[in-house]
Amino acid sequence: MSEIKRKRGRKPNSNNRANEETLDSPSTTAMDDVFSVANVELVPNQSPPAAVAEHRPRRGRPKKLKTEEKPPPPPRVSSAGLSRPSENGGDINGVIPGGDSNGAGPAVARVVPAMDAVVKVFCVHTEPNFSLPWQRKRQYSSSSSGFVIGGRRVLTNAHSVEHYTQVKLKKRGSDTKYLATVLAIGTECDIAMLTVDDDEFWEGVSPVEFGELPTLQDAVTVVGYPIGGDTISVTSGVVSRIEILSYVHGSTELLGLQIDAAINSGNSGGPAFSDKGNCVGIAFQSLKHEDVENIGYVIPTPVIVHFIKDYEKNGAYTGFPILGVEWQKMENPDLRMAMGMKSDQKGVRIRRIDPTAPEYKVLKPSDIILSFDGVDIANDGTVPFRHGERMGFSYLVSQKYTGDSAAIKVLRDSKILNFKMDLATHRRLIPSHNKGRPPSFYIIAGFVFSTVSVPYLRSEYGKEYEFETPVKLLEKLLYSLPQSPDEQLVVISQVLVADINIGYEEIVNTQVHAFNGKPVKNLKSLADMVENCDDEFLKFDLEYDQIVVLRSKTAKAATLDILATHCIPSAMSDDLKK
């Protein structure tokens, strides 16, 4: 056919807009990428009969053609009783027809995920203001994903409802948002549990069923409400790695799955289904780097089940216990010989022990941990996991619950000792989270005293706080251990300028070691010592050998004027008044 020439000044009149890609209407190419050939078997397009292919139009009455009768389409089933054909002729949900190039052959059944159990989570957050701890930041909204489980409960990510003020849920295909109640937030495992009081929300919703831990190359389907649209989204991939992962939100290390399915903003809290239709994890984070593509992470079912059973057992989330020791690999043969290990013995050496942990009363530095609960530990700190797989022995510890007992075999002075000890959660000198509580503060003479936490450092020094934080604070963050359960790192966060504190204005984020010669254990002890001080002077010993000296009566009188000037309701936070 000859090329059709267009007239100047006029747009071509085209009725077919299938090849146009706009922001308002997604193209078919995007759907083909999500439901790729690797994940869905599509029905091959049947070629037309030869008579039709060779037929050419004649003048006059057309000749009747003999056509072949097409077989009826295969049944299509989905969780809602209906299915939607894909744009390539296959079926996205339900039974996927298959066969040879002629269309013959048995149909391949595929279990459909419980799509109607996936909900959209709307949350209004009000974060604390660490620079001005007596007030909060401006509220903001976010949306994420979640899914319904048994017992009229909904699971989502902990970071999806962090510092929540209001949480609402919307079901698939519904225009109603239901108010939700937060039952528990697991900071370490990044899981939160919600519920809805309105009975209408639970009508027609079937909870998802949990499946077993998948193996490598198992197909997974991530369902949620990511950025880029308002309706439900599905991405597919395979399990590419199973190991102990770093949970960014919880600053912990737990078992995790790495998948190659796309996990974008808004996917957080959405379920990951297996090809059997069972939930095998919760999407929660992804790796963003210029050198990587499609690396997403999923919280596996052992961690999810641990969170649920912990809540059901204790009525609240108590956390994942850890072994309060730091250990060293024993891969060097000379090191093993020096520590008195035999050729058939393997294990790891204890470097130091957390003084606040139960293990501090039993174990000693340079002990060799040979086994945990009867499972032998290798020289690199791993234990057998599944066929062809090994896992860090911290996985065994994370399977326990707070307060559970564990049997530990150690080698000390060439003698094998067996201990049975209770496990507890780990407490850091600089905590990773405030667990929803507002920051503590105390003000005297314009000096704002506060406690250091990871959110505090992130607020002061930004996302790159690990590089921008002063060396003294950074060293305590990475290496220091608390000497008592209630120990805190107290700093002067800032100085509210007034006549009484002239010359001290440049003191910022400096640790307080002592007050009037007495060590500062935590912020409450400092506030009590200052409030009950009858000495003439208030003397604070700070980091870098600095001191701050104020007259006692003048400082307490000036505090009231400073509070009024800056519209601060109280000189101390509510938790210090108790």
TrEMBL record:
GO molecular function: serine-type endopeptidase activity
Region of interest called Disordered, as start-end residue ranges on this chain: 1-100
Residues making up the signal peptide according to the UniProt record: none
Keywords: Hydrolase, Protease, Serine protease
Keyword RNA-binding set for record: no
Superkingdom of origin: Eukaryota
GO annotation (BP), single: proteolysis
Domain Protease Do-like PDZ: 430-575
Regions of compositional bias (Basic residues) in chain numbering: 1-11
SUPFAM superfamilies assigned to the protein according to its UniProt record, in alphabetical order: PDZ domain-like, Trypsin-like serine proteases
Pfam family, one: PDZ_3
UniProt keyword annotation of Hydrolase present: yes
Family statement drawn from the similarity comment of this UniProt entry: Belongs to the peptidase S1C family.
PANTHER family assigned to the protein according to its UniProt record, in alphabetical order: PEPTIDASE DO-RELATED (PTHR45980:SF19), PTHR45980
Name this protein carries in UniProt: Protease Do-like PDZ domain-containing protein
Origin organism lineage: Eukaryota, Viridiplantae, Streptophyta, Embryophyta, Tracheophyta
